[in-house]
Amino acid sequence: MKKKYFVLLTAFFFCSSLYAQDLKKDYQQLRNKETEEKILLKYLEKWQKEQPKDPEMFIAFSNFYFSKSHNEIVRLDTKPGKENNFEMTDSAGNKGYMYSEIYFTDSLITKAYNYLSMALLHNPSRLDIYFGQAYMLQETKNYTAQSLRIINIINKFYTTPTGWLWTDNKPCENMPDLFTGSIYRYCTGFFKAEQDSLVIAVSDAMIKVFPKDVRFYSMAGSSYAANKKYREAVSYYEKAIAIDPKDVIVLHNLAYVSMLLPDKEKAMLYYNEILKYGNEEDKEEAKKRIQELKE
């Protein structure tokens, strides 16, 4: 009897999973047809009623409100915007700029984020959902909250390095490369946004979990260098070189920062290392710098 019950229970969950996939597929088809928002929302409510713990349902709700929160306005100004400027000149030679600005409706962003939190409540091993929250905070330029969420994810990975799931509850593939690569891209985003203290905080958290990953020593070193904290930068770069003595990018950074200290002897040492391991372009640059140091 127990064996039959187990078989029936397994069949139930299998059928339930297939039905959830059908609901997701039907919803995606509605989205592809550019269906009216009220019809999409009605379908999502139906989905939630029939599959109240389905992570894909929560994600669909989140995407619905995140998309709805997105606003774009076009501006005309005599000064250029931050990006995507279209320059115009009138007959008198006066220049003007047309550009778009993106802003988000806070209440809808909060709804979108909370739906992902509900998904994680029922599905705490879904790595893609954690990353979805981090991405949402990045898009809304809530960088401090994003960094805290990323560090929280790193700490979870530290205590539970296996068993992580992705879309449709499938096991994550290419781990830990998927994890480290994703976090590295977030660090790159912080660096481009000039959020150097956050780069360092996230890099330090990653170094604790992945002490052999040169990229995070390099990111932290570059953030210190960007703020003219050259000795701190050298410390991180040297730790990276201790792991991979042939990393030419780190050698370049280390040699250049050593020049700025100034520590000509150390700079000369690392430029000579580039002559050993770099390509022809790297070597030409190193020779040029060595000549400058000799003058």
What's the gist of this structure?
With 295 residues, this protein is mainly alpha-helical. Helices cover 70% and strands 7% of the residues. The chain has helices spanning 2-32, 37-50, 55-69, 106-122, 127-139, 143-159, 177-192, 196-209, 214-226, 230-243, 248-260, 264-277, 280-294; strands spanning 70-77, 86-89, 95-104.
Report what the structure shows.
With 295 residues, the chain is mainly α. The protein contains 13 helices and 3 strands. Strands 1-3-2 form a 3-stranded antiparallel β-sheet. A hairpin with a 5-residue loop joins strand 2 and strand 3 (95-104). The protein is flat. The termini are far apart. Mean pLDDT is 89; it is low at 1-16.
Average predicted local confidence, pLDDT = 89
Low-confidence stretches: 1-16
- The run of helices and strands is HHHEEEHHHHHHHHHH
Structural class: mainly alpha
- Our measurement of the CA-to-CA distance between the termini, rounded to an integer number of angstroms, reads 89 Å
Strand neighbour order, sheet with most strands: 1-3-2
Helix amount: 55-70%
How large is the radius of gyration? 25 Å
| Count of helix runs | 13
The rough form would be described as flat
Q: Assess the beta-strand content as a share of residues.
A: 5-15%
Counting DSSP E segments of at least 2 residues, the number of strands comes to 3
What composes the largest sheet?
Answer: 3 strands, antiparallel
